[in-house]
Amino acid sequence: MSFRRKVFSMIRTTLLLTLFVFVGLAAEKKATKIPKSDPPAGAVKVDDNFYRFTDAKGKKWVYRKTPFGWAKIEETAETAPPPPRPAEAEIRVLSDGDVVKFEKASPFGTSRWERKADELTADEKTALARFREQRAARQ
Questions:
Q1: Model-level pTM greater than 0.70?
Q2: ∠ CA 112-92-79, rounded to 5°
Q3: Residue 113: predicted pLDDT
Q4: Which of 46, 80, 83, 95 could form a disulfide with 50 if both were Cys (CB 3.0 to 4.6 A apart)?
C-alpha cells in the first residue's frame, strides 16, 4: 500500500469516527416531537400557522406550522405570536397625483412601486387617505 493510500485511509477513518460521535451526541439530546397530523381537535386557532392547546394536565402548548410539519412547543411568553399589524399601516405614500408612489419595508429591503390613482388596491387607498389626512393636518 502506498503512502498516499495510507494517508487517505487514515483521513477517511478519522472523518467517519468524528461523524459517528456527532450523530451519537445529537441522538442523546431531547428533541421536540413533531406531530404527523394537525393540532388536536380542541386547539384554538390564532392564525393559519399558530394554534394554542391546553392538555388534560393543564399544561399549555403551542402548535406552529413549519416547513417540516407541526411543531409542538410548551407555551411561554417567547412563543406568543406577535400581534397582527394592519397591512395599510406598513405602506408609506411618497407622492400624490395621477400616479401614486408607495414604499413598504420587506424582509429583503425596501419595496417601492407606483400605481395609477384609479387602479389602487384597498390597502393602498387606505394608506393614501391616511397620507392626505396627515398632509392636511400639517397645513
A1: no
A2: 95
A3: 92
A4: 46
